[in-house]
Amino acid sequence: MGDLLDAIKARRAVRCYTEQMVEREKIDKVIEAGLYAANGKGLQSPYIIAITNKELRDRLSTLNREIGGWDPPFDPFYGAPVVLLVAVDEDYKNRVYDGALVIGNMMLEASSLGLGSCWIHRARETLKSRLGQEVLKLAGLTDKTYEGIGFCILGYPKDVPAAAPRREGRVRYVD
Asked: Could you read off the pLDDT tens digit of each residue along the chain, which spans 175 residues?
């Protein structure tokens, strides 16, 4: 088994992708990593909605751009062909923490598979929209009100940025 710290250090937020679709086996491995994230009381509350349909992905990108206030043709999914939406019952008090851990695990696994990934915000606003409700319905999640925690985009990177130096002074010991 490889050194986990090295894998963590190698992961980068990728914002430039090729058009090549990610193989289903790799998407499934990334999702599996998310499903094994730590979670409050072992409830396994987060849902992962894998969007690989280009038309739906493009509609979500357009909505995300509008929510973010950018002008066309900006793509807030940076050309990534796969969008993994993490959603949790909005009444669950640990929803943000559990969902964040899911996305973190998925980004690490993506990196280990040679994929690029990036956390994209505005999932919360998306799920409050008509399109967001359509996505939930397509995913069979109509029994509760769900909050979008984030999007994890996936694809083959055109470019992987170098790691920024770590800022000093962020660790404090209290002995």
From this structure: 458 888 899 999 999 999 999 999 999 999 999 999 999 999 999 999 999 999 999 999 999 999 999 999 999 999 999 999 999 999 999 999 999 999 999 999 999 999 999 999 999 999 999 999 999 999 999 999 999 999 999 999 999 889 899 999 999 999 9
Q: Which residue, among 92, 109, 82, has the nearest Cα to 44 in the 3D structure?
A: 92
Q: Could you tell me if 20 and 58 are in contact, meaning their C-beta atoms sit under 8 angstroms apart?
A: no
- Is residue 87 within 8 A of residue 151, CB to CB? The reply is no
SS (H, E, C) 31-74: HHHHHCCCCHHHCCCCEEEEECCHHHHHHHHHHHHHHHCCCCCC
Structural fold of domain 4-155: NADH Oxidase (3.40.109)
CA–CA dist 17, 157 (Å, integer): 4
Is residue 96 within 8 Å of 3, Cβ to Cβ? Answer: no
